[in-house]
């Protein structure tokens, strides 16, 4: 009888320990799951607030380095682009105007913050937000396209290479993007054609190629146009 009572006691004690262990495991698992969910929520909320992420960067295009260290894009054959309002602009095959217009007219092309087109002729003085001469035709063409397609909404982005202080590069690129925006507006581009945040400077972020050569750094110094709505 005594042995039986001792056996029953041992069984009860072992069941109690197992139950406590199971409960502790379940509580620990629930705590981990809760923590994981909180982290996921925080990451998702943070990602939702970022407007500057470029998931697809534009191709830099073929070209050569000039004596001032600028990347000069090799232009294609001349083309005439007839816009929907009857205005005809002169550009080059493969240029921003050519690719931008093709995107506008393609019903399957979907606008979004990952759609960017490089300006070929927006070149700046070194460490300044002053455009070099030669941008005027492309600027005028862009204005005409925005006027011809009033449902468009775009955003401008400017970039630098990774030379020097990153914070200063971001500020410089912001000034350059603002300079292009102000020129477009001054030449007649509708303000309604721009996103709520019409321009942004990204500094050395999102390079199109390596910054290890003069050619690469020149290609990364650029101004781009993002199509947010068609």
Summed up:
With 230 residues, the protein is of the alpha+beta class. It has one domain (63-229): OmpA-like domain (60s Ribosomal Protein L30, Chain: A, 2-Layer Sandwich).
Helices and strands, in order, run as HEEEEHEHEHEHE
CATH architecture: 2-Layer Sandwich
The class by helix and strand makeup works out as alpha+beta
The third-level CATH topology is 60s Ribosomal Protein L30, Chain: A
CATH class: Alpha Beta
Rounded average pLDDT: 82
Shape call: globular
Q: How many DSSP E strands? A: 8
- CATH homologous superfamily heading: OmpA-like domain
Q: Could you give the order of strands across the largest sheet?
A: 5-8-6-7
Provide the domain count. 1
**Distance N to C terminus:** 88 Å
The low-confidence parts are 1-50, 52-57
Number of helices: 5
Biggest sheet, open or closed, and with what strands and sense? Answer: 4 strands, mixed
Sheet-strand content, in percent, reads: 15-25%
Helix content: 40-55%
